[in-house]
Amino acid sequence: MPDDLAPYDTPQHRDETAVAGMWLFLASEVLLFGGLFLVVLVYSHTRRAGWIMGVRHTNLIIGSINTLLLLTSSAMYTLAVVAARAGRARRIIAPALGAAGLGVAFLGLKSWEWHLEFSEHLFPGAGFSISGPDAGGAQLFYSFYFLSTALHGLHMLVGIGLILWVCYRMARRRGQPVPVIPVEVVGLYWSFVDLVWILLFPVLYLVGRV
Amino acid sequence: MSMAPMADSANGYLWQDGTLRSWLLTTDHKRIALLYMASITAFFILGGVGAALIRLQLLVPAGAILSDETYSRMFTLHGVVMVWLFLVPSIPVTLGNFLVPLMLGARDLAFPRLNLLSWYLFVMAGMLVVYGLFRGGLETGWTFYTPLSTDYTQGHVLPVVAGVFLSGFSSIATGVNFIISIHQLRAPGMTWYRLPLMLWALYATSVIFVLATPVLSITLVLLAFEHFFHVGVFDPALGGDPLLFQHLFWFYSHPAVYIMILPGMGVISEVVSTFCHKPVFGYRFVAWSSISIASIGFLVWGHHMFVAGTSLYAAVVFSMLSFLVSVPSAIKVFNWLGTMHGGAIRLDAPMLYAMGFIGLFTVGGLTGLFLASLASDVHLTQTYFVVAHFHYIMVGGMVSAYFAGLHYWWPKITGRMYPEMWGRTAAGLLFFGFNLTFFPQFLLGYEGMPRRYATYPAQFQVLNVLSSAGASILALAYILPLVYFAWSLLRGARASDNPWQATGLEWRTSSPPPTENFAHVPVVNHDAYDYAALDQANRAASQEPPHA
Ligand code: HEM
Ligand SMILES: [Cu+2]
């Protein structure tokens, strides 16, 4: 009885299973970032003064623009999901590409920000530029800053890759019925990446700034 | 339901297409199970060589063969390979992979390609770890404590940690696959309370895979980041907190010790029921105890840090919770004994292994309570008592369960019987060798011999020699099955579809099963261990004339 649907009973069964799998994977991702946020919770209390010094050195303007970019990107991708649900293949590719483009812009700005920080010697280690009694806490902050933005950036890269893969599939399958599920599943992932940033933004740029 | 006719084994999944390519690109859960089995067997042997060298070293008080530094690297090799590359994956990825779809009455796992990917991730992880170890290894122990692992180590931390990190993703993939399969792919009539207890155990294990492993992943990333860039994360010189590493590490690794026992408990439930030909006593209690072990297991990590400088109040709470987590384990033991009570027990090799498991696990669990009590732990921590405690559970328990499962499902996996006499011999040797190896270590620990030292005072020699002697018997008990399993694969007697008269769906298909598992989707209309229905079907089958 081998058929291409196996191990599922119906296409709908297969789709449900894929969506459930993505949700469960995201639960796992929550705990990945959860470990990082535990570090924040601890050090922003035990090394409060230095931690806040670190926060004050981040670039609020770039951070805010990036937040705007990413929220817009997520919203745009939602348009692609809506189009997929309505079965309109043509309307999927443009917003999806837009979402990926905004993601690339985010990463571009982020790299520029990193570049500025490197040249100001804010990377923790021997040449760290913040000094004084609380410099240790500031270093801990910047360790967290670079690690969390790198990890988030990596997730963005994966997300952008997935979106491009969806676009490629849609372009190749012109004229056939629209497979909704890949669009939805990638949308879940992209929203998650967005959500992580919504938590990272206040932690890195806002809390303790004023 | 009529039994499927005994198929020619050439039609089974095993021999159908013998090319290397067909194996390396397979998405058949049964073949992936065997790929995993080959890999973890290799790691088991590597870890075993490490153990042998450790026991050789400790034959004499001054240390027989290794320098202090090499000794540290050797127990690290042993621990890293055994925990991360053998025990954590062991039963889930081999027997679990093979059985989950069969027990559910499904064609495959929910995500067959993800399953293959998880094996490749695991192999890459293993190669990274082995590369690091063969370049010279590291001296941190399997726990990678900072600041030794970050700032002071002379060893090859990065490849090893990267390998363990990668193997985590393979665990997560397996966990996601199992959970979703159990939710989505149950055959018609297979309600939750009709699931074999093995599936409840694997479900609970998968929850830990999915929710605890990522915390280990991020912890290892932080560790590698600090080690590689020489920046502060856990470094006390910068106000960082090494205890934070321990919290994060044990938040994963205590639940992970349940990864290393729950699947074994699942196997034992199946084996005990089959060989007593009785339903498991208190099915729902056993099922839910798996879930409660997995949940409470997330709340007890602090018992590894009683003397590390945590607050007394935290320690008291962690101590009480640790007592609590032993309750569901005890429930399982009582229920197995309740199942055996008054049963006509057949003492085939799987059952001998299972009975060994119950005894050894009980000793391991009870000594856990000594360690969970604050006052006695101050004396016992960092001694051989701890080493004996976890070996009783992980080796006496889990590895015995793995062998019980291998023997029990071997006819289904290969279509051949193993030689029963040799199986019983190996099971007996294992029980004897194990106790001789590890019981003296309880005494050593109680008398104060610290763990992880290359030398020891002369007064401890007798017990150490006993332990090393036991280890050589244990080694024999592990090598024997390798030999007769290999023999049976080619020469063993053909297995019937249901040689043990067991009730699970996996026994309703041929041995070995066809690639698509079942000729017809099975329909389930009774409980997991309904032997009355099985006996009735057998009687009916023997009365009606055999069909051609
Ligand atoms: C009855 C439940 C259990 C209790 C109350 C318990 C308690 C403990 C405690 C308090 C320690 C810390 C000892 C110390 O370092 O001073 C410990 C260590 C350990 N336990 Fe258990 N345990 C239990 C079950 C298990 C199980 C099921 C496993 C494995 C399958 C396990 C594996 C370990 C390991 C590997 C260590 C040592 C970790 C290390 O420092 O290298 N335990 N246990
Ligand atoms: Cu523990």
TrEMBL record, chain B:
<keyword id="KW-0408">Iron</keyword>
<dbReference type="Pfam" id="PF00115">
    <property type="entry name" value="COX1"/>
</dbReference>
<dbReference type="InterPro" id="IPR023616">
    <property type="entry name" value="Cyt_c_oxase-like_su1_dom"/>
</dbReference>
<keyword id="KW-0679">Respiratory chain</keyword>
<keyword id="KW-0249">Electron transport</keyword>
<dbReference type="InterPro" id="IPR023615">
    <property type="entry name" value="Cyt_c_Oxase_su1_BS"/>
</dbReference>
<keyword id="KW-0349">Heme</keyword>
<dbReference type="InterPro" id="IPR000883">
    <property type="entry name" value="Cyt_C_Oxase_1"/>
</dbReference>
<dbReference type="GO" id="GO:0022904">
    <property type="term" value="P:respiratory electron transport chain"/>
</dbReference>
<keyword id="KW-0813">Transport</keyword>
<dbReference type="GO" id="GO:0004129">
    <property type="term" value="F:cytochrome-c oxidase activity"/>
</dbReference>
<dbReference type="GO" id="GO:0016491">
    <property type="term" value="F:oxidoreductase activity"/>
</dbReference>
<dbReference type="GO" id="GO:0016020">
    <property type="term" value="C:membrane"/>
</dbReference>
<protein>
    <submittedName>
        <fullName>Cytochrome c oxidase subunit 1</fullName>
        <ecNumber>1.9.3.1</ecNumber>
    </submittedName>
</protein>
<keyword id="KW-1133">Transmembrane helix</keyword>
<dbReference type="GO" id="GO:0020037">
    <property type="term" value="F:heme binding"/>
</dbReference>
<dbReference type="GO" id="GO:0009060">
    <property type="term" value="P:aerobic respiration"/>
</dbReference>
<keyword id="KW-0479">Metal-binding</keyword>
<keyword id="KW-0812">Transmembrane</keyword>
<comment type="similarity">
    <text>Belongs to the heme-copper respiratory oxidase family.</text>
</comment>
<keyword id="KW-0472">Membrane</keyword>
<dbReference type="InterPro" id="IPR036927">
    <property type="entry name" value="Cyt_c_oxase-like_su1_sf"/>
</dbReference>
<keyword id="KW-0560">Oxidoreductase</keyword>
<dbReference type="GO" id="GO:0015990">
    <property type="term" value="P:electron transport coupled proton transport"/>
</dbReference>
